[in-house]
Amino acid sequence: MEDIFKLLKIKEMEMEEILRTNLEKEKEKIMVECAKKVELVEKDKKNLETNVRKLEREVYMSKEVISQLKEILSQKDSPLVGAVDALKKENKNLMKENEDLEEVSNQMFEALTGKKT
Question: Can you give the three-state secondary structure of the chain, one letter per residue?
Answer without folding.
Answer: CHHHHHHHHHHHHHHHHHHHHHHHHHHHHHHHHHHHHHHHHHHHHHHHHHHHHHHHHHHHHHHHHHHHHHHHHHCCCCHHHHHHHHHHHHHHHHHHHHHHHHHHHHHHHHHHHCCCC
